[in-house]
Design goal:
single chain; alpha/beta; Rossmann fold; Zinc Finger, Delta Prime, domain 3; 6-stranded parallel β-sheet; 56% helix; globular
Length: 459
């Protein structure tokens, strides 16, 4: 059975399902949500649903796959198979394990243990043996020798696992090779290799392999993640019969850095606080959720594009608050001359907005509005932007390598759609005044705030 894109319609009823269903994707949160939806449909009726976490011994999962249920004629066994299938990026697993370990607490340790087990499986290293030697071997394979001592510290506390992944892998091979006889394995895997793994290929041939499409850029992935978290908040609020404001959800995204684990944890606390029939406002999030999140520069640009004065000024204050500043997944250096650097980055964005605005107002330009989808933008607008301009022989929208980032210009067009060409040109011309102000005795935040406030107000 070929790979299919994941969708609710792609999940069959239990009796029509093959014996193995695998859901894969790049973002763990999306994979887990998709698996939960699949488990709900496959487990409908008199199906015994067994869900196993990463701390469950491999032999327990194996026995559940191979033995019949005593309580039902149909059984669904749900577990994460990432470490059985390997990883396309073991270096990332090591980094994620160390990061989780650094967070501390029971949840941090569980996450670190899970990542380390997947790392050892991906590198074909057994969990037994002396921790220092095992850590040195793993760190050498991923070319991160300096991380060996930290990895050894995790291995010393890694709970002993009887049987190991080999036992579970062989049990799964038996399940995949037979038709659904009342037992279905529902598996998840994050970032498995595209090919070269025998077990993965067997599942693809005989079972059902559903893939969650990856976003083409980190910014698209972040936007998709935030959209799913908003849906999650609205769903949970309905289940609790709690009213939650859109502004409250946005505030929670900001305060948790859109981290799925932190978001869901804080959301649960807020719902419990509000109680049945209660209401969660943005002010409640401010009061009850500690704000230690970083700030995303692109979120500021988006607020600027919406001309939302309150959010723009709030995010501007955060950008100068001393917290970590990101541009999507890249950390921005704010230690040296940050006000000057920020003003230059803002000027670059204004220049993009003005350039795309002028291009879309030119005679014969395809029509654009802020609600246009990215796919439509790619089909209708991008070919026009790619046209070379005489006498330069290249597009003004191309980068130094001659390539055009479609999503970058799509976002710039969205942000520019609520401004006139005159407003953007005036703001760009004023950038020189801001540069002078920043180099004088004027307060950097005051100079930038005045500049941004005038832009949003159209002054």
């Amino acid at each position: 059975m070929p790979r299919k894109a994941h969708s609710p319609a792609a999940i069959p009823e239990f009796d029509a399902a093959p014996s193995a269903v695998l859901i894969v994707g790049d973002v763990e949160f999306f994979v887990e949500n998709a698996a939960a939806e699949a488990a709900k449909k496959l487990g409908d009726g008199d199906v015994e649903v067994l869900k196993f976490d990463d701390e469950t011994p491999a032999e327990v999962v194996s026995d559940s796959l191979l033995n019949r249920s005593l309580f039902s004629a149909r059984r669904l066994v749900w577990f994460d198979a990432s470490r059985l299938l390997g990883s396309a990026a073991p270096g990332e697993l090591l980094e994620e394990a160390l990061e989780a370990w650094g967070k501390g607490g029971p949840s941090g340790k569980r996450e670190a243990f899970r990542k380390v087990r997947a790392l050892l499986s991906a590198l074909d290293l057994g969990p037994g043996g002396e921790p220092d030697e095992l850590a040195a071997a793993a760190a050498k394979k991923v070319r991160r020798k300096d991380d060996a001592p930290a990895l050894a510290g995790i291995l010393r506390e890694l709970p002993e696992e009887r049987g190991g992944p080999a036992v579970l892998r062989e049990a799964l091979r038996m399940v995949v090779g037979r038709p659904n006889d009342g037992m279905v394995a529902l598996m998840t895997a994050v970032r498995p290799p595209e090919k070269g793994v025998e077990l993965l290929e067997e599942i693809e041939r005989h079972g059902l392999l559903l893939t969650i499409p990856s976003s083409s850029t980190p910014r698209e992935a972040q936007a998709q993640l935030e959209s799913r978290l908003r849906e999650l908040a609205q769903t949970r609020a309905r289940e609790w019969e709690v009213s939650i404001e859109s502004a409250a959800i946005q505030r929670l995204l900001v305060r948790t850095d859109a981290d799925p684990q932190a978001f869901t944890s804080e959301l649960a606390k807020l719902l419990e606080w509000a109680g049945q029939g209660g209401r969660i406002r943005a002010a409640d999030v401010v009061e009850h959720v500690e704000d230690e999140a970083s700030e995303d520069l692109y979120a500021f640009y988006d607020a600027l594009g919406r001309r939302d004065a309150a959010e723009v000024l709030g995010r501007l204050e955060r950008l100068f608050s001393g917290r970590t500043v990101r541009a999507a997944d890249r950390v921005v250096d704010t230690d040296n001359y940050w006000p000057v650097i920020f003003a230059a980055m803002l000027g670059t964005e204004l220049r993009r907005m003005l350039l795309i605005r002028v291009a879309l107002e030119a005679p014969g330009a395809p029509q654009f509005d802020g609600s246009m989808s990215y796919n439509a933008f790619q089909a209708r607008i991008l070919p026009r932007l790619a046209e070379p301009v005489e006498p330069f022989g290249r597009s003004p929208f191309a980068n130094a390598n001659g390539q055009i980032s479609g999503y970058l210009w799509y976002k710039a067009a969205q942000r520019a759609s609520r401004y006139s060409t005159r407003e953007l040109a005036r703001a760009l011309a004023r950038a020189a005044e801001v540069d002078v102000a920043l180099k004088s005795s004027a307060s950097p935040l005051e100079a930038v705030t005045s500049h941004v406030a005038r832009l949003v107000a159209g002054a």
